[in-house]
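In this supplementary section we document a worked example of the pipeline. Step one takes a protein sequence of length 97 as its only input; no multiple sequence alignment statistics are reported here. Step two produces a three-dimensional model, which step three serialises into structure tokens for compact storage. The input and output of this example are shown verbatim.
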Amino acid sequence: MELPLILGIIGTTILVVTFFLYEHHKLTVDDFTFDFLHLIGSACLMVYAIYTELTIFVILNGLAALISLIDVVKSLRDKPRSRTKTTFIKQKRPIKK
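The serialised model returned by step three reads:
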């Protein structure tokens, strides 16, 4: 198995796990952990997309990684303690109609 394919599988797994944790109210989009996992997953998928020459996915995952990187940097700069403790929520999100 080649390295880009391994990175693609890892990136997909990370994003699916992050989405699962969000959907099951274990993470919020404001958590450092959410942003960090999203950054790593998107970066892995961007490398895979570059290797497989899928331009639209390079753009998509590159933008997702950039947005997550900005959030991670803001968290590290503004709230250094927020990265040591993930906020686990117990409230249910309102159901969209």
